[in-house]
Amino acid sequence: MFFKRIVLFLSLYFYLGRCLFAAEGMPQFNADSFPSQLFWLLITFLILYLVLYFIILPRIRDNLRLRRNKISNDIERAELIKTQIENITVEYEEKIEKAKVRANETIKNAYEKASLEFSSQLSGAKKRISQKINEAETEIIEYKKSIAVEVISMSQEISSMLLKKVLGKSLDKEDINFIKKQVSTIKVE
Questions:
Q1: Is residue 92, in this structure, part of any structural domain at all?
Q2: What is the pLDDT of residues 8-33, one digit of tens each?
Q3: What domain range is 72 assigned to?
Q4: pLDDT tens for residues 166-177?
Q5: HSE toward the beta carbon, residue 141, CA cutoff 13 A
Q6: Phi, psi values for residue 168, rounded to 5°
Q7: How many domains is the chain built from?
């Protein structure tokens, strides 16, 4: 059917070409050269068709097939990478959670350890303070005793000086001790 149309078209072209176009003018419109022009046109188009069909189109098909394969491989690789990234993200989040838990435990342990150290140091400081207080109290007691002894000896000296000035006569230490004993017995009773 297709060939019938081509034959009909060519015959009309030849017939109308001889009638319509004059010999003058352009040489390609000269009806006498139409058969040779059609022959070379058919040969040229046939060669062009064969070159396109057997050389160029297979290369284009191969390129399209390669592109399609490359695109599908790239898509598969991208999906694989996407799943790997999702797995890595999940692992990363799990590791972060584990690290947070470990950090909280470490902080808690450090806080408890610091509390224990603080309480032990506080109790040690309290013991040292109470020991220092006891030492200070014993020093104060000894100091009071030494002051009492000094006060007694000074009072004896002052008394002997006063008596010497008042009476004009000095007393011995034995006399002063005797008076002191009598005074202390009066106070106690």
A1: no
A2: 777 777 666 665 554 456 767 777 77
A3: 2-87
A4: 777 666 767 767
A5: 6
A6: 85, 5
A7: 1
